[in-house]
């Protein structure tokens, strides 16, 4: 009897404590919106409906980051974002507000979609010249006012297709109900996030989550021309393990060797390649760059791991594309020809360099707070909070 009562009291304490945390975050936003309503020209109606989309505390500095979005009748307005960033002592560090003024006057077309979610996906496929090869089936339904649903890939996407209702502007004075969905194209070259009019099925706008860069011309530099790179740059000028890894145990087993243009060498114009050993940072990548399960030992010997999956996307029908293999020793030491010629096989070296640099970026920005709680794109967060596969 006493034990049962104690458990109930303890449970009630945690419930009250949790509600207190949520109320504090909500109150911070409410206070901020009320204080800045005049500054941004927002009406009482404009700031009456919003939702917290993300919040976390920076483990390094203790700064609390809270992100929120304006809604209309319970449906998010896709570009109307805001944030508050609060110091450990409770004082406001900085804030941001992109709420839409006089929102209710700009909403047109009603709040009920004429198209179903499935019909919206079909309209998008038609406009982007995709051929739906397998039936679009519902996998999960979150429901709610936004009718959030996840559909199968349909032979047009490498990932399942999430879709939900949002309000989205079509010009400065008109906002309509739309279906928002994402399609990771077969071929892997584009990952479209799309808003399609929920009334007529026309694509309103789309943005690409994939970034493509072309290195077409050398950097101009008077002090570091490519012609001087080999003679002026020596292996000793770049530490085998960068300053980032000074706390790593050099006696550990080999985690990886990569023949790359190492940090801080920007390009072939600024230095030569070096075989860098064990470049992973023990804090940011505790199981190395080729792990995904959080158990000692790599899951992949190719350029794939918890932070990065590097491969070519040349052949639309053959994805995931080629990734070089470092074999059991995880040694990615491949020839590189900087002068293109027929039959040249520099692809393994290029992809290895890409894998190295993206992992370096992950490990460096981790030190500045872009960690698991900050949504740092890891597959497995190793129990450190946040959401994996983000």
Q: Work out the number of β strands.
A: 13
Mean pLDDT: 82
Assembly level? single chain
Q: H/E order of the elements?
A: HEEEEHHEEEEEEHEEEH
Alpha-beta content class? alpha+beta
Detailed description of the structure:
This protein has 390 residues and is of the alpha+beta class. The protein folds into three domains: 27-98, Nuclear Transport Factor 2, Chain: A; 117-208, no CATH class; 225-390, Elastase, domain 1, CATH 3.10.170.10. The protein has five helices and 13 strands. It has a six-stranded antiparallel beta sheet, covered by helices on one side. The chain has a four-stranded antiparallel beta sheet with strand order 1-2-3-4, with helices on one face. The protein has a three-stranded mixed beta sheet with strand order 12-11-13. The radius of gyration is 25 Å and the shape is globular. The model is unreliable at 9-23 and 217-253 (pLDDT under 50).
Brief rundown of the structure:
The chain starts with a helix and ends in a 24-residue tail after the last helix. It is of the alpha+beta class and 390 residues long.
